[in-house]
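in:
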């Protein structure tokens, strides 16, 4: 695990964007694992800036999102499908046919989970996975107590996560109760991982992930077993180390 501590969120965004841009230049058809939430937004905006300047192209890049809410109305602005479209597909000029999110409105949700695993495997697997971290140490929506070997599946969201994410919805009760998320076992198969975290609110989760025991109580701690993971933090997120 390589830990990079930078002065502020802007530095986290440019450092991580440069890493992604470098990998896209090395492997133009790379499979990029994408996270939603606010943590990687600085990275995505910096990538959009580099793309607008003509410094990087994502024409052949294939993307798989980590997770999606279950049961939101189609094209709900907080659905991760729409967040991905807004923050990545459009500004980075990705081919929409190359961008996938789990299908949270599928009639057969278990089948949708299996289909997602099959699509990931058929792509050849994730070359670079971008992750955020929840205040409770979750990655994707793998909440504390998630099986360390888990695969893409339906999960109930914890009360804390529903509260953390209420800011994206008009009313607290609009936050879905369930989601589809890649499992911890699925995420660990990525060949390279970069986790970004900013702000004091993430300090305790970051410290548990990096310095605590590997435990399902802090799902991100499993990354200690990953051979090629970089954790990019601003000083506030690193303050518990
Ligand atoms: C969200 C997402 C995760 C994200 C994490 C942190 O709910 N499911 O993929 O990394 O929780 O969110 P944020 O970056 O908004 O703090």
């Amino acid at each position: 695990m390589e830990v990079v501590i930078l002065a502020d969120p802007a530095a986290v965004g440019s450092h991580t964007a440069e890493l992604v841009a470098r990998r896209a230049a090395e492997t133009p058809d790379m499979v990029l694992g994408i996270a939603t939430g606010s943590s990687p937004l600085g990275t995505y905006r910096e990538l959009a800036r580099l793309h607008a300047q003509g410094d990087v192209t994502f024409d052949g890049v294939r993307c798989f999102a980590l997770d999606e809410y279950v049961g939101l109305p189609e094209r709900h602005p907080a659905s991760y499908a729409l967040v991905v479209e807004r923050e990545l597909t459009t500004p980075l000029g990705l081919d929409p046919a190359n961008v996938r999110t789990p299908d949270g409105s599928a009639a057969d949700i278990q089948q949708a989970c299996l289909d997602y695993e099959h699509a990931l495997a058929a792509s050849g697997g994730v070359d670079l996975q971008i992750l955020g971290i929840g205040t409770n140490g979750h990655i994707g929506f793998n909440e504390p107590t998630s099986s360390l070997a888990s695969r893409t599946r339906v999960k109930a969201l914890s009360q804390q996560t529903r509260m953390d994410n209420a800011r994206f919805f008009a009313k607290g009760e609009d936050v879905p109760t369930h989601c589809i998320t890649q499992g911890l076992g699925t995420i660990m198969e990525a060949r390279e991982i970069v986790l970004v975290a900013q702000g004091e609110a993430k300090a305790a989760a970051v410290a548990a992930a990096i310095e605590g025991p590997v435990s399902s109580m802090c799902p991100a701690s499993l990354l200690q077993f990953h051979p090629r993971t970089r954790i990019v933090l601003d000083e506030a997120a690193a303050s518990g180390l």
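note: The longest helix spans residues 9-26.
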